[in-house]
């Protein structure tokens, strides 16, 4: 079966920057799944899957605008330290370069700590990978027909997909 609208694709990936450094990867034997044709992935990446089959591997290099966005130098804000959430519950100590979650009106957002004051912390709300051209190395594990329920929900269920 080929990747087309309303198929569920399971794949593993490695994400690298232009220097070839590994930024992110699926764990061995833990592919992720998405429902093709429902904006489950970055559109430019999803387009690369079209027509491919299980066992295919390919790499896709995406410009920042197609990946994690351009950097916005105005997207640096001072926020109360108590609005930040760290890797450990109740984290109070912040250092520049740490990644934290910031509670915003649109939900939680990943931010990078720039400067630390007594009560206020300066954070950069750009995605940590914004401004980077990145390469995805993809291995397609399997392709199957989506269920009616998956199409209705707009995402993949089961292994590597959403669990309700
Ligand atoms: Zn669902």
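^ Assign residues to that structure.
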């Amino acid at each position: 079966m080929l990747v087309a609208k309303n198929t569920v694709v399971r794949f593993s990936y490695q994400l690298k920057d232009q220097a070839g450094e590994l930024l992110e990867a699926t764990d061995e034997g833990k592919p992720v799944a998405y429902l093709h044709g429902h904006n489950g992935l970055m559109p430019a990446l999803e387009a690369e899957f079209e027509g491919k089959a299980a066992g295919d591997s390919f790499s896709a290099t995406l410009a920042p605008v197609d990946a994690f966005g351009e950097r916005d130098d105005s997207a640096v804000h001072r926020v109360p330290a108590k609005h930040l959430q760290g890797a450990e519950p109740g984290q109070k100590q912040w250092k520049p370069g740490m990644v934290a979650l910031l509670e915003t009106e649109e939900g939680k957002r990943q931010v990078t700590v720039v400067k630390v004051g007594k009560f206020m912390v300066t954070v950069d709300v750009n995605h940590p990978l914004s401004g980077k051209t990145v390469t995805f190395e993809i291995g397609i594990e399997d392709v199957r027909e989506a269920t009616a329920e998956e199409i209705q929900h707009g995402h993949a269920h089961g292994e590597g997909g959403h669990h309700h």
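The pocket of zinc ion is lined by residues 153, 155, 157, 162, 164 (CB under 6 Å).
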